[in-house]
Amino acid sequence: xxxxxxxxxxxxxxxxxxxxxxxxxxxxxxxxxxxxxxxxxxxxxxxxxxxxxxxxxxxxxxxxxxxxxxxxxxxxxxxxxxxxxxxxxxxxxxxxxxxxxxxxxxxxxxxxxxxxxxxxxxxxxxxxxxxxxxxxxxxxxxxxxxxxxxxxxxxxxxxxxxxxxxxxxxxxxxxxxxxxxxxxxxxxxxxxxxxxxxxxxxxxxxxxxxxxxxxxxxxxxxxxxxxxxxxxxxxxxxxxxxxxxxxxxxxxxxxxxxxxxxxxxxxxxxxxxxxxxxxxxxxxxxxxxxxxxxxxxxxxxxxxxxxxxxxxxxxxxxxxxxxxxxxxxxxxxxxxxxxxxxxxxxxxx
Length: 349
What we know:
Blueprint: E1 2-6, H1 12-15, E2 16-20, E3 31-40, H2 42-49, E4 64-65, E5 71-77, E6 89-92, E7 95-96, H3 102-105, E8 116-117, E9 129-132, E10 137-139, H4 146-149, H5 154-166, E11 174-178, H6 183-194, E12 198-203, H7 206-215, E13 219-222, H8 227-234, E14 240-245, H9 252-257, E15 259-267, H10 281-284, E16 289-292, H11 298-309, E17 317-322, H12 326-334, E18 341-345
Parallel strand pairs: 11-12, 11-14, 12-13, 14-15, 15-16, 17-18
Antiparallel strand pairs: 1-2, 1-4, 3-5, 3-9, 3-18, 5-6, 6-10, 7-8
């Protein structure tokens, strides 16, 4: 099969090769899927950079195939697998979980004691075939096309958990989206709007500001504007009820300061750094809450898929690149020249 194989660290031009590798077989308790499409995520860049540190899971040795998201058709089911048949269209839940620990039993599969992510701890979706546990498969609803499928995986699922399950957004609240042009950010705009919230999007360029407004944001704050002061001006001095931040870094303190008393900040990324300078008094003295929100659960994956099938959410895809040109997509992602997801077309849908 053809696959984008990571063979080293550094630039994708030299560390990632599209080449022939052995096609996997469905082992016991596995399903073999012919991949129609996948996406690019910042974790693909982290893998190329060999990022390490707190909260970074160990990766298997190279060579390795990245790719958190995948959808396609079932090819074969391994020994002991029932209920899945060749030709069925499926989309893959990206989290790896045991289904038996105390957290899985509670339904919190992304808090599993052996938790991992497809494309990180095992070979992922940047290949023509992938093997996955059957519990990770969801049948694709009729009429759901590749653009929507590019948005039901890691990024959108993270935003869904952050806003719906963790921050528990409510109709009429105001939500600040920090980093509103990436996969998580564009998802957050859509999800918050669908929940009946007012959305303020923080972006870096004018063309992204226009796209954010077209996607449903009610107002934007530019990166060269003071975030806290701008948010206060847009909310007549009140602040926002909820902020979702997938960026981290030096902007954390302003995001916290933009919250109303009793406001909630959902944290789901640290692309600009994981050690911000903050004042804890600005948190506890104003009854603010900082809430961790990584990848959503298996049940939340189903809920997100149903929201797309019902037409409550609209996909936001910046570009589609074929597998052979995956480097082009990675360069766009690295330079932050995107608004939405980058999909990777691999096989027949």
